[in-house]
């Protein structure tokens, strides 16, 4: 079956092309029902609205999750210039949008270059980082907004794919090491250009050596799961 590979020390890796509108935990629950395997984990969650590569470890493969979780990941994303959002995406209690000014493509490329060279990010409040034992996104839901210190990040790729001068949409290819927040790249791009900016689309295309091209969808997994695989 496409997307299913034996793990080196037992168990299986399953590559799923996650659809929008479902949580990573929800995908795990569906795969448990499909496979009958209870012990399942993932190599890095995706937000509900995000799509793309979700690497699942089945059975004994869950013991090997550390390496892919902390390694290289690649994304394709759309940033809306002029969009203000407290969560830096569309999954927010409110958004405000202004009409962005017209930029030259070189302005955007130079801003991306500065972001990449800076090599650090201030983690967003909507993250799983903990403060005094509580995850930041849990505090954010309660209306608490805390100061965060910049953290070093490795941005291996930050390329402009398309800039729509009519709408202010910017499509980017992003790749880097663990701890990289694509939504913060959107925020930083807006900061470099002097206006708010937020994500409107995020698709993960690679985790470590695994590519979205090798993934399957849930419907195919349910239909083609090999009997006796556990």
Describe the structure in your own words.
The protein is an alpha+beta fold. The chain folds into 2 domains: 4-69 and 209-224, 2-Layer Sandwich (Pseudouridine synthase), CATH 3.30.2350; 73-206, Pseudouridine synthase (2-Layer Sandwich). The protein has 6 helices and 15 strands. It has helices spanning 24-35, 66-70, 105-118, 136-141, 182-193, 218-224, and strands at residues 4-6, 12-18, 40-42, 51-58, 73-81, 83-84, 96-97, 120-121, 130-131, 134-135, 151-152, 155-164, 169-176, 197-207, 210-211. Strands 1, 2, 3, 4, 5, 12, 13, 14 and 15 form a 9-stranded mixed β-sheet that branches. A two-stranded antiparallel sheet has the order 6-7. A hairpin with a 5-residue loop joins strand 1 and strand 2 (12-18). The longest helix has 14 residues, at 105-118. The two termini are 14 Å apart. The relative contact order is 0.24.
């Amino acid at each position: 079956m496409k997307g299913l590979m034996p793990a080196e020390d037992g168990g299986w890796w399953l590559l799923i092309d996650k659809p929008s509108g479902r949580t990573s935990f929800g995908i795990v629950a569906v795969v448990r029902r499909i496979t009958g395997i209870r012990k399942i984990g993932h190599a890095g969650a995706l937000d509900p609205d995000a799509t793309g590569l979700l690497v699942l470890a089945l059975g004994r493969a869950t013991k090997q999750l550390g390496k892919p979780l902390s390694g290289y990941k690649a994304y394709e994303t759309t940033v809306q210039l002029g969009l203000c959002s407290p969560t830096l995406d569309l999954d927010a209690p409110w958004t405000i949008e202004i009409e962005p000014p017209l930029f030259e493509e070189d302005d955007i490329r130079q801003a991306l270059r500065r972001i990449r060279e800076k090599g650090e990010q201030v983690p967003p409040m909507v993250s799983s980082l903990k403060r005094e034992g509580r995850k930041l996104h849990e505090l954010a839901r309660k209306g608490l907004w805390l100061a965060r210190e910049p953290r070093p990040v490795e941005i291996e790729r930050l390329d402009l794919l398309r800039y729509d001068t009519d709408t202010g949409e910017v499509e980017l290819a992003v790749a880097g090491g663990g701890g990289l927040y694509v939504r913060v790249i959107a925020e930083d791009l807006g900061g470099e250009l002097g206006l708010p900016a937020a994500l409107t689309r995020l698709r993960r295309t690679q985790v470590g050596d695994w590519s979205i091209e090798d993934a399957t969808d849930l419907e195919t997994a349910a239909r083609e799961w090999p009997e006796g695989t556990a």
